[in-house]
């Protein structure tokens, strides 16, 4: 069952200007592993974090530094959540979070689907 969806779009050039004006944003928004990435990849990860917050229905208990976008060996992006952010996802009964990223023509976008497995749903009803 889908619990929530989120989408976000980022203008890469505008994002780069923001980072240049306020370098501390890198530390506030991204994990150390993410900070080493190119601006277009950072913009896509920023969009992913925004899309996740939308899919969760708000930012209560969610912290940017506890959301990392990692890659599976295949290159597929995935969320690595820690701390209270991971707890919020669990409390809301979310068992899977699906993510897709793209960047082209100066824009970066992310789409997130938060899902509760059918098995979890059946257990709650019992």
From TrEMBL:
Function per UniProt: Transfers the 4'-phosphopantetheine moiety from coenzyme A to a Ser of acyl-carrier-protein.
Localization per record: Cytoplasm
Major localization listed first in the record, in broad terms: cytoplasm
Entry keyword set: Cytoplasm, Fatty acid biosynthesis, Fatty acid metabolism, Lipid biosynthesis, Lipid metabolism, Magnesium, Metal-binding, Transferase
Residues involved in Mg(2+) binding: 8, 50
Family affiliation: Belongs to the P-Pant transferase superfamily. AcpS family.
InterPro entries tied to this protein: 4-PPantetheinyl_Trfase_dom (IPR008278), 4-PPantetheinyl_Trfase_dom_sf (IPR037143), ACPS (IPR002582), Ppantetheine-prot_Trfase_dom (IPR004568)
Protein name: Holo-[acyl-carrier-protein] synthase
Catalytic reactions on record: apo-[ACP] + CoA = holo-[ACP] + adenosine 3',5'-bisphosphate + H(+)
Enzyme class: transferase
Domain of life of the native organism: Bacteria
Cofactor entry: Mg(2+)
NCBIfam families: acpS, pantethn_trn, PRK00070.3-2
EC number: 2.7.8.7
Limits of the 4'-phosphopantetheinyl transferase domain: 5-88
Listed transmembrane segments: none
């Amino acid at each position: 069952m889908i619990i929530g969806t989120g989408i976000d779009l980022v203008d890469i050039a505008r994002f780069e200007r923001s980072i240049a004006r306020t370098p501390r944003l890198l530390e506030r928004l991204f994990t150390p592993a993410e900070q080493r990435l190119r601006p277009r990849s950072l913009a896509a990860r920023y969009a992913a974090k925004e899309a996740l917050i939308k899919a969760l229905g708000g930012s209560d208990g969610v912290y940017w530094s506890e959301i990392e976008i990692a890659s599976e060996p295949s290159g597929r992006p995935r969320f690595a959540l820690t701390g209270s952010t991971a707890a919020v996802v669990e409390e809301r009964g979310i068992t899977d979070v699906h993510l897709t990223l793209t960047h082209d023509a100066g824009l970066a976008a992310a789409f997130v689907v938060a899902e509760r497995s059918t098995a979890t749903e059946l257990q709650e009803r019992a």
